[in-house]
Amino acid sequence: MRLPRLSLILAVVAPTISSFAPSSNHVLLKSWSTSSSIHSSVLPIPTKDVIGQQQPELGEDDLYMTPPERNPPVAGSIMKMLPKETFEIDTPTSLFYFGVDLLAVIVTMGFLDVVVTSDTYHAFPMWAQALSVAPLQVLTGCMWCIGHDAGHGTVSKNNKSINRIVGEIAHSVMCLTPFVPWALSHRKHHLNHNHLEKDYSHQWFIREESDNLHPLIKASHFTRNLQLPILYFVYLFLGIPDGGHVLFYGRMWEGHSLKEKADAAISVMVSLATAGALWSNMGFADFAVVCMVPWCVMGFWLFMVTYLQHHSEDGKLYTDDTYTFERGAFETVDRNYGKWVNRMSHHMMDGHVIHHLFFTKVPHYRLEAATRALKAGMEEAGMGDMYKSIDTPDFTQEIVKQFNDNWFFIDEKQVVRE
Hints:
Elements lengths: L3 H15 L4 H14 L11 H7 L20 H5 L11 H26 L2 H5 L2 H8 L6 H12 L8 H14 L5 H13 L13 E2 L8 H8 L1 H4 L3 H8 L19 H25 L1 H26 L7 E2 L6 H5 L4 E3 L2 H6 L7 H6 L9 H14 L8 E3 L3 H12 L2 E2 L4 E2 L2
Helix pairs in contact: 1-2, 5-8, 7-15, 8-9, 9-14, 14-15, 15-20
């Protein structure tokens, strides 16, 4: 048997050993090293160019294996993490919050009426009039949250009429948002949240495919920063991307009967009648300043919180092959806007993950405690990293930055296709 590596070593060290060895051993080792050199060879040290040809340079991610996609716990398992009272819908409690918010808005509107009929107000230029009254309608956002509960049937568990009445007052009248059409498209958003093609309220585009978009969509992206104050109007009246909430067309109405559309039309008529009555009593100028400017402020707020709750740097989109309800729900982000903002918004913003998981089962006044229990339960299950929560005290700056940087784009690597 040949021992080339051992022979090579002996060939190198033999002269040194032989200087200390007897002459007979010296002859033996010399003979062995000479004969062994015939069977061994030393490879040349490869140059940098040779290495590059044999082994391409590795990228920064090439040394890491892509972890397998994990599934969040199913809804039944999550329910066991939460207190039993999480799912108790108490109608008197719901109506109490509705009454408090309604009273606050009525008082605010009464004070607003005193302001706009004063000589001081009319001495202001129009832009100053708008600025002076816009803060007075901030409470309509609270009213909107109550109507949001009604749209999910969580004002009253067993009485649909109560949900309908509260929703019409809170949304169709106070927020000039047709209640039934909004509830229809919003429910479809919940059922398809973060599905690449089926999601409602948001339209997703692959960033790498941006060059192939329709020219109108490219124009929308180019003018995105000018659209923030009017995007809620575009959503309701122009029906982008879901379909019209005033004129019934688009994908949200596919498969719905004439009876369902007639029922939804009642909400539209309530909103139009409210707007018409205010316009005729105030006149165009006061109506525009007192109602529509604050309505745009409310619309900006609604778009902002909705966008930030459903967009994050590590967000993922799913396809028909990979989508599950729980996967979509856990892509929601709880946003902490500060103690008082969270309270005034009825914890709909900092408890949005729970809301998406159980949108027809948990009223707004259970969200705060349920969110704490969810966080603890997910940590105990070793899945705490799947729950997303971001402190966002500078929310107005954040929406401008995120919308400018990302718009409705998603990177291809964020799409889970298999």
